[in-house]
Amino acid sequence: MSSISDVQIDHDDHHHAPPKGLMRWVLTTNHKDIGSMYLWFSFAMFLTGGAMAMVIRAELFQPGLQFVEPNFFNQMTTVHGLIMVFGAVMPAFTGLANWLIPMMIGAPDMALPRMNNWSFWILPFAFAILLASLFMEGGGPNFGWTFYAPLSTTYAPDSVALFVFSVHIMGISSIMGAINVIVTIMNMRAPGMTYMKLPLFVWTWLITAFLLIAVMPVLAGVVTMVLTDKFFGTSFFDAAGGGDPVLFQHIFWFFGHPEVYIMILPSFGIISAIVPAFSRKKLFGYASMVYATASIAGLSFIVWAHHMFTTGMPVQAELFFMYCTMLISVPTGVKVFNWVATMWRGAISFETPMLFALAFIVLFTIGGFSGLMLAITPVDFQYHDTYFVVAHFHYVLVSGAIFSIMAACYFWLPKWTGKMYDEGLAKLHFWCSLISVNVLFFPMHFLGLGGMPRRIPDYALQFADVNAIVSLGGFAFGLSQLIFLAVVIKCIRGGEPTTAKPWEGAEGLEWDLLPAKAPYHSFSTPPEVK
Amino acid sequence: MTRCIQLLLLLASSPAALAEGGMSYNLRPGVTAISQQVYGLHMTIFYICCAIGVVVFGAMFWAIIHHRKSKGAKPASFHESTKVEIVWTVIPFLILIGMAIPATKTLLAMEDPSNADLTVQVTGSQWKWHYKYFDYELEYYSLLASDQDEITGKRAKRENYLLEVDRPLVLPVGKKVRFLMTSEDVIHSWWVPDFAVKKDANPGFINEAWTIIDEPGIYRGQCAELCGKDHGFMPVVVIAKEQDEFDQWMAEQQQAYQQAKQEEQALLAMTMDEAELMSVGKQVYDKHCAACHQANGEGLPGVFPALKDSPIALGDVDAHIDIIVNGKAGTAMQAFGKQLTLKEIAAVTTYERNAWGNDTGDLVQAKDVAALKGQE
Q1: Distance (Å) from the C-alpha of residue A496 to the closest C-alpha of chain B?
Q2: CA-to-CA distance for B72 and B81, rounded, in angstroms?
Q3: A130 CA to chain B: closest CA distance, Å?
Q4: Chain-centre distance of CA A217, in angstroms?
Q5: Residue B173 within a domain
Q6: E strands within A329-436?
Q7: What is the pLDDT of residues B270-293, one digit of tens each?
Q8: Has domain A33-245 been given CATH number 1.20.210.10?
């Protein structure tokens, strides 16, 4: 067959240059095309979920009800959470995995390219269904992204069926993406690319993929139970039929806690690539980074009930979950120490990816501190379900996960486009984001400690001033992200051509062996890794 | 715009200026031995985190300032050290053990509700609390006292906006009070920050919690678990009184409780006219029904059904009373038989059958309700 294709020039072109038009994107099996689609989709969802956050912050700008009804407010908090978790953060990481893993391990593409196409293309339908449910009579999901039963069953609007269906599709997409990552990493490493030579981004994604395969089916199970409780007369979560509403929370958080590590482990990989690059020094403690990631992933399965300390568990269970949760800070601490040690006595420069990475380390650590505080059961009774928790998880998810995604985009944008972004504009984006994200989320700690519960559309007068500040920070953060869009478009359309290795200290096959713009097909012949 | 400028000024000024609004920026030490222990734990962990932060961020910023390329720094080549890595694994572990010991002690104390002097059952429902004293013959509902006009901004918000109820829970100081938490519909969570008590009220199950209040006073909290549309509008207010004042209050309440029961019987013989039924009915409706069915009777399509032109409000009177008294299983429609008096049920039924263009002309009397309740 190869002799035939050699003489057919058309066929040859077909393989080396992408076809034009819409069908290129619909039919593509190229990991770079699919990675780009994931990233653009994720950004669109980021803006959609962000718009909902703007509605929330507008309503909370002043006490009293000004703009929306409480029922619609609850839909906004719920769909904001679902979209940001399943639509923005997770697809962004899958997009980065698609773009980077084959280039990092010297593979020509993902192992299962057709499934790759499928796992992306079902996502827009999942979110179209979720968003459409907002327009149904009775409104969309209004029970929080954690959809605790029986609020999500007996007392839910009928649109819960659409919510369940869309979560099923998102889950299928995630599982297929995870299978692809595992198969690719296990089978398609270039000769000489042993496991302990893998870039940490690949390692963290490999572990993340196993977490995904372990817990997404649990999520699928629990939404199915919600569906049958609501529509088919089962009573998994209804005491009147022998069920238990707290059972829901156990199943949900058995998925939910590994899920939060799914949203942070790839960040660790990104930061572990960027910090050494701009410190011009090898990553400190590579092996301990791998072991720490694996330990965090393992521990993530035995800490789920720390989300449920107030549900009335036996005290022995509370103690177990408190101790295990506290333990997580050990491997997480190791990571932060390793990054700092990497910078120590390096030759550091501060391009935008590094700025985001540094902000990540500081702000993620602050989120880690509040996480440790939340682990202490007796005090958690006071923090639980207040704005202190909201501050905590936004510190790890926004100034953690999202900042790392921004850092990754700036870091690899030259390799993706062959052009350099506008450093001045990018720094403006960084500083606007850094300041506004803290004005937005830091005062939430005070609101929570002062006693403001989360998920309320209106609040007591004492919280008015701080909420107004938080809202201003929110609007500023939302607007700042439009600068990011401008930087990326400007780079694609008219960025300065760059070199194969625009970052002096960057390491890895993608910088060393590929030209400035990674070709549509890279590593058709595997490189030899020494 | 002026408000924005004011806020920016506030932002620039010290936190002390902000604190004038009365908001606490830290956890409250509270008024029980447990809440003070919890506060102590909170501060200890906070200071430990601060100390770790100073060390870690200190080292990081030292590197950022001194080891930067623009200052001519040359990168070192070290990239691992088993010794250092063991040190920074073991030290955090020891710090954690130091934190876990006091936390465990406090937790064990918090989870021991034995030997209580007084038991109160706390039942959440959408969106109110119900208190039942086990040691006395007294139970009642506790509803938000801020009105719709305050919420929508039609009139000025009073002090304690959203933190005021019509009938607070009253407890004696210095006594061990045990709470039994449960719910009639979705999960709620009963929280009073000053007691460091937050416990979920799960439908079909009973949770325990306890407190011993040291100081008399008024303590406010809120429902802490998302429980539907008006989750933000079901506050908790507890008044703690000295034992003798509590006994006096309890005696008055029980007398009033008995009196109300007698009046209820007397009412059965009386007939109310349409004007009175409609005026009482509107009050009851606005307080208990309007949250879901809306003040205009149109409900929220797809969530809460309309009563205007509805087959129930226009159909059989007894079926209408029945659904108010007993609720409708599997929906958010609660049973109001225990929450409302016979007179109130009669009035609100009449109101629903004659308001918003529902012109049935039916007048329902207390004895009609009593007759229906009696059949069960």
Answers
A1: 24
A2: 26
A3: 17
A4: 18
A5: yes
A6: 419-420
A7: 788 888 889 999 989 988 888 889
A8: yes
Is B374 in the A-facing interface, judged by CB distances under 8 Å?
Answer: no
**Which among A292, A407, A274, A284 has a CA at the least distance from the CA of A340?**
A284
pLDDT tens readout for residues B180-226: 999 999 999 999 999 999 999 999 999 999 999 999 999 999 999 99
Inter-chain touch A148–B3, beta carbons under 8 Å: no
Nearest chain B CA: its distance from A147 CA (Å) = 10
| Dist CA A174 CA A93 (whole Å) | 11
- pLDDT at B266 > cutoff 90: no
Residue A299 has pLDDT above 90, yes or no: yes
Domain boundary among B240, B263, B286: B263
Cβ atoms < 10 Å from Cβ of B239: 15
| A306 part of the active site | yes
Q: Convert B131-178 into a string of H (helix), E (strand) and C (coil).
A: EEECCCCEEEEECECCCHHHHCCCCCCCCCCCCCECCCEEEECCCEEE
User: Residue A344 and residue B110: Cβ atoms within 8 Å?
Assistant: no
Please confirm, yes or no, whether A436 is among the known catalytic residues: no
Query: Out of B18, B229, B301, whose CB is closest to A74?
Result: B229
pLDDT for the residue A160? 95
Q: Given an 8 Å threshold on Cβ–Cβ distance, is B25 in contact with A446?
A: yes
Q: What is the least distance, in Å, from the CA of B363 to any CA of chain A?
A: 32
Domain match, B273 and B243 both: no
Q: Which residues on A lie below 8 Å from B110 (Cβ)?
A: 378, 381
Banded pLDDT at B376 (limits 50, 70, 90):
low
- Examine the domain organization and report whether B233 and B132 are in the same domain: yes
B261–chain A Cβ distance below 8 A for any pair = no
Catalytic residue list contains A257: yes
- Residues B125 and B178 placed together within one structural domain of the fold: yes
Q: How far apart are CA A360 and CA A399, in angstroms?
A: 6
Q: In this predicted structure, which of A450-454, A466-470, B6-10, B372-376 has the lowest mean pLDDT?
A: B6-10
CB contact under 8 A, B60 and A343: yes
DSSP A136: S
A449, A471, A504: best mutation site toward chain B, by most B Cβ within 10 Å?
A: A449
Question: Amino acid letter at A495?
Answer: G
Compute the average pLDDT of residues A509-529: 94
Residue written as token pair 């042993």: A194
Token representation of residue B125: 């429902």
The domain tally of chain B equals 3
A318/B111 CB distance under 8 A? yes
Q: Which residues of B touch A66 (CB under 8 A)?
A: 153
> Cβ of A311 under 8 Å from any chain B Cβ?
yes
Does ipTM top 0.95? no
How confident is the model over B80-100, as pLDDT tens digits? 899 999 999 999 999 999 999
How far is the CA of B251 from the CAs of A408, B136, B197, B255, in angstroms? 69, 10, 27, 6
| pLDDT for residue B371 is more than 90 | no
User: Which candidate, B199, B205, B207, places its Cα nearest to that of B180?
Assistant: B207
**DSSP string covering B38-54, please?**
HHHHHHHHHHHHHHHHH
Report yes or no on whether pTM surpasses 0.90. Answer: yes
CB-CB neighbours of B372 under 10 Å: 21
Domain residue limits at B293: 268-374
Establish if B46 belongs to a structural domain.
yes
My answer on whether B124 and B59 are in the same domain is: no
pLDDT surpasses 90 at B332: no
Bridge partners of B144, per DSSP, are: B165
The reply to whether B221 and B249 lie within a common domain is yes
Which residue of chain A is at minimal alpha-carbon distance from B49?
A369
- Residue B361: its pLDDT value, please? 85
CA-only gyration radius of chain B, Å: 28
**Per-residue model confidence as pLDDT tens digits over A334-389:** 999 999 999 999 999 999 999 999 999 999 999 999 999 999 999 999 999 999 99
